[in-house]
Amino acid sequence: TGNHTAPAWPALLLLAAGALLAFAPVVAGLPLAAYLSVGALLLGGIALLPRAVALLLRALRPWAVRNALAQLAIERARRTPGLAAVAVGGVVASLALAIALTVMVTSFRGSMVQWLDTVLPAPLYVRGAAADGQAAFSEHFLQQASRLPGMERIEGLRSVSLQPDAARPAVALIARPMARGADQVLPLIAPALPVPRGQVAVYASEAAAELWGAVPSSNLPPFLESFRALAHDQQAPPALYFVAGVWRDYAHQSGALVMASDDLAALSGERGANDLALWPAPGADVAELRAALTQLAQSESGPTAAGGLEFASAGEIRARSLRIFDRSFAVTYWLQALAIGIGLFGVAASFSAQVLARRKEFGLLAHLGLTRAQILAVVAGEGAAWTGVGAVAGLLLGVAVSLVLVLVVNPQSFHWTMELRLPLARLLALCAAVVLAGTATAWLAGRAAAGRDAVLAVKEDW
User: Which of 407, 395, 408 is nearest to 102 (CA)?
Assistant: First the structure.
């Protein structure tokens, strides 16, 4: 076969196209260019495999000089880079996608954990049943609850739906105490801007910024009519609001706005809440505190309202959210294993065809004094070399594809971002498993061709 490899420029052109397509905008609301970018990166990487095989195996030649079997395996693989590319191309593609999905899921999960830690600062939360648009807990209830024995602090969270456009999904307006500072209350993606004098600070989620133009320093023109409708005198002035920051939100895909509770109370004239964040006093009995809140709700609104209280600790909400997340993405791990298995099946088929065609070669090696175990070691060494190159290529391509998925596809598809996280130990373990499986596959494929029939095959030429 020789050292001939195809020219590199088509592969490099595909890689360059993949990199450029990653910066293209959405098409009809879909990240079509990003999907094309992933395809171009995979095709370009696989097209470069013959050259990658040749370069890496050439670098390994000095290491194999002292071992005849290793030198034989590496030289054979080095002189047939095209065969190696065909054999491990499927493994490279499947491993790259598996690594990309692993990085994406890990990044999403880690970002969600960080988000939950920020938006759930209190140890205990209470949700009340209420009609649409109505507060479940009155201002009087909040005042009474703050005086309960064992209650250190209580904060009310108010949520209202805004419908600037009847043809589009509603946007959530969330009011919460902001005395601790927006950077402590919300997972801002950048430091908050100073609010001009006389204007009300509003913090937009990434989806609200993307879908409604609620970018920093804007005055929220799409929402002015909605705010005016909330005002108790129906005369909310225009250009009163100022987007002071954008925050990461995984709960409201259609967008959410956050303002201080005092600002919403000044606008609407009421200080009710839908949810309560509770900080029990040190050493307080949480069960007694729950019972006291239930009794207070019953005295305020009757048994039906008291029966609608839902209590949950921050740990319970966090565990439930992550359990749902893991269940939702569990199928991706099976798909990754299936894809890699299909790629290894291609390696097995390629090696089986090659070793059957190399029976005379194995027979000659046996006549030269190599044992069956040594011949199988040569075949396994070739498999290790080939799948090793494939694992390195798959790792590099997988990281490149994961950058597109995390930094381009997710923001364009769901209008939220996440922190990139590379689980190096897991990725290296995945690559090592592929190399071991490929080596074992090559060894098993060579067993049938390295037996007595290989020795007899040499006599056919005598």
Answer: 395
Beta strand pairing call for 256-260 and 171-176: parallel
275-280: strand order across its sheet: 241-247, 200-205, 256-260, 171-176, 151-162, 275-280, 124-127, 310-313
Q: Give the pLDDT confidence of 154-164 residue by residue, as tens digits.
A: 999 999 999 99
C-alpha–C-alpha distance, residues 310 and 74, integer Å: 66
| Gap between the Cα atoms of 175 and 262, Å rounded | 8
Read off the tokens for 432.
Answer: 């090592």
Q: What share of the chain is helix, strand, coil (3-state, %, to 5)?
A: 60, 10, 25
**Is the model's pLDDT at 201 over the cut of 90?**
yes
How far apart (Å, rounded) are the C-alpha atoms in residues 116 and 109? 10
**197 CB burial (10 A radius; 0-12, 13-18, 19+):** exposed
A 10 A CB-CB count for 96 gives 27
In total, the chain counts a number of residues equal to: 462
- Tell me the β-bridge partners of 243: 202
Question: Could you tell me which residues are beta bridge partners of residue 201?
Answer: 242
Predicted confidence (pLDDT) at residue 304 exceeds the cutoff of 50 = no
146 close to 283: Cβ distance less than 8 angstroms: no
CA-closest candidate to residue 175, choices 271, 307, 65:
271
Task: State pLDDT tens for residues 408-417.
Answer: 999 999 999 9
Residue 316's nearest CA partner among 274, 281, 286, 285 is 286
